Amino acid sequence: MTDQIYMKRCIELARKALGKTYPNPFVGSVIVYNDTIIGEGFHAKAGENHAEINAINSVVNKDLLKDSTIYVSLEPCSHFGKTPPCANKIVEIGFKKVVIGTLDSHKKVNGRGKEIVEEAGIEVISGVLENECRELNKRFFTFHQKKRPFIILKWAQSNDGFLDKDFKRTQISNGLVKQFVHKMRSEEHAILVGTQTALSDHPSLTTREISGRNPVRILIDLRLKVPRDFKIYNDKAPTLVFNAEKNSIEENVKFIKIEKENFLQNLIQKLYEEQIQSVIIEGGSFTLTQFIKAGLWDEAIIIKNEDLNVGSGTKAPEFNFKPNRTENFRDNIVEFYSNK
Ligand SMILES: NC(=O)C1=CN([C@@H]2O[C@H](COP(=O)(O)OP(=O)(O)OC[C@H]3O[C@@H](n4cnc5c(N)ncnc54)[C@H](OP(=O)(O)O)[C@@H]3O)[C@@H](O)[C@H]2O)C=CC1
Ligand SMILES: Nc1c(N[C@@H]2O[C@H](COP(=O)(O)O)[C@@H](O)[C@H]2O)[nH]c(=O)[nH]c1=O
Ligand SMILES: [Zn+2]
Questions:
Q1: Nearest atom in ligand 2 to 173's CA
Q2: For residues 318 and 248, what is the distance between their CA atoms, to the nearest angstrom?
C-alpha cells in the first residue's frame, strides 16, 4: 500500500514534463528513507538527467542513500544513451531496495535494468501501479511495440454533423474547449492536417491559449499546393511536409517524399523513422476517414456543439463507436473514445 502511494507520487512528478521529453518517456522517481521522502526528481527533457539521477541529486544527506528505497515509474535504463545507465548508478550507490512501476520495452533495456540491480544483490519489486505507469507512457510503449506513433483522432462537429459551414473555416467549439485543445497540442508530439484543411483554414496549429510547447506540424500536400507564406510554414515550430515531389530541408521545414501507393502505411513508416511518438489527426474529414477505415487510431476525441446547425459544408467522418466517457465543457460535449 505504501509502495503504491510513493509510486503515485512518481507518476505525479513524471507528468510535470508531459510533452517535453520526446522521444524519451515521462519518468518520475522518489527516494524514501525511514518512511520519509528525502528526494524527488523527474526527467525534464531528452538529453538531460534521467529521473533517478535528479532524485539522487536532490537528496541533501547522501549518507542516507544506501539505507533508502528508490521508487521509479519506469525500469532504470541499462544502456549508454545521451547519459550513462541509471541501473549502474543505483548499484554504485547500493540502495537498500528498488521499486519499479513497469518494465521498459525499449529494445536496449527490456528487463536488463532490473537484472543489473538484482545481480548486484539489491532487492527489486516491479509492477507497482503497473497499469497506471503504462498509461502514463502509452505513447512511448505504442511507438516501440507497434513501431508507429500513438494516434489520436480529433475533430469538432455541429449538431447537424458538419465540420464547417459552406466549406470555409468555422469555429464550432467554444473558448473553453479551445484551451483544452491547445493543452492537448502542448502534450502531444505532433499534429497532422490534410491539404484541404491547410488551404481553406490557413491554420497555425500552435499552442496559444495556454503556455506550452508547440507540436511538430505535419502536412500532407502531395503536389505542394499550400503556399509557402501560409502560417503552417512559419517559424513557430518544425513542419514536416509529406509530398510526391522532393526531399529537402529548408530552415524549419522538412519536405519528405512519399509514394502514393499504400500511402498510409508509408506515412506511418516515415513518422516512425522521424521518431514521432504521438500525433493528433486534426482533419479534415477525408484525412480522418483514411485513418478510421484502416483502424489506425488509439484514441479519438469528438467535440459536439448541439446548439449549432450549419446546414451545409464538409460532412463529419462516419464513426460508429461508443465513447468511454463524455465531459461537458460549458455548452459543448466532448466525447472520449479508446480503440482497445
Ligand atoms: N471542425 C473541425 O474540427 C475541423 C474542420 N476542418 C474543415 O474540414 C475541411 C477540409 O476537409 P476535407 O475537405 O475533408 O480535406 P482534408 O483536409 O482532409 O484534405 C484532403 C486532401 O488531403 C490530401 N490527402 C489527405 N490524405 C491523403 C491520402 N491518404 N492520400 C492522398 N492524399 C491525401 C488530398 O489532397 P489532394 O487531393 O489535393 O492531393 C485530399 O484531397 C475544411 O474546410 C476545414 O475547415 C478541418 C479540420 C478539423
Ligand atoms: N474549427 C474547429 C477546429 N478546427 C481545427 O483547428 C485548426 C485551426 O488551428 P489554429 O489556426 O491553430 O487555430 C483548423 O485547421 C482545424 O484543423 N478545431 C476545434 O477544436 N474546434 C473547431 O471549431
Ligand atoms: Zn536512466
A1: 23
A2: 36
Q: Which ligand is nearest to the CA of 202?
A: 2
Count Cβ neighbours within 10 Å for each residue of 24-59 and write b for 16 or more, e otherwise: bbbbbbbbbbeeebbbbbbbbeeeebbbbbbbbeeb
Ligand 1 site-directed mutation target among 201, 230, 287, 301, most atoms within 8 Å of CB: 287
Which residues form the pocket of ligand 2, taking CB atoms under 6 Å from any ligand atom? Answer: 156, 170-173, 181, 193, 197, 201, 203-206, 282-283, 303
AA identity, residue 60: V
Q: Retrieve residue 10's grid coordinates.
A: 512518481
pLDDT in tens, 264-281: 999 999 999 999 999 999
162 Cβ below 6 A of ligand 1: no
> Alpha-carbon distance 91 to 86, whole Å?
9
pLDDT band at 125 (very low <50, low <70, confident <90, very high): very high
Candidate list 12, 40, 48, 52, residue with the active-site label: 52
pTM of the model: 0.96
Q: What mean pLDDT value characterizes the chain?
A: 97
User: What is the per-residue pLDDT for 217?
Assistant: 98
195 CA: nearest ligand 1 atom: 22
3 state DSSP class of 300: strand
Which residues touch 234 (CB under 8 Å, ≥6 apart)?
204
